[in-house]
Amino acid sequence: MTRIEQLRSYMEQEGLKGFYIAKPANVRCISGFTGEDSFLFITEDRQYFITDPRYTEQAALECPDYEADKVRIQHGTDGKEACRRKWRQKDWV
Fold it and tell me: Which residues contact 80 (CB under 8 A, 6 or more apart)?
């Protein structure tokens, strides 16, 4: 079972519709991305790789199974608020 499958199994057990990952070591562990300033948002059937425009090319190479999404992240923040603004219409944010 892959790490993403293990995470989704955990999400199902806990009744979670989405899982936000911000810690760089965890982003790397789950996605394999070796860059910085990145986040993951995992849902029951989709997986988003969130970063600023500097890393989109690297993300496409290292994380081909993820939907890359560019989000403007203010310096010094963890990106969670930017993700909320982008996906607030969804019931899983």
Answer: 20, 22, 39
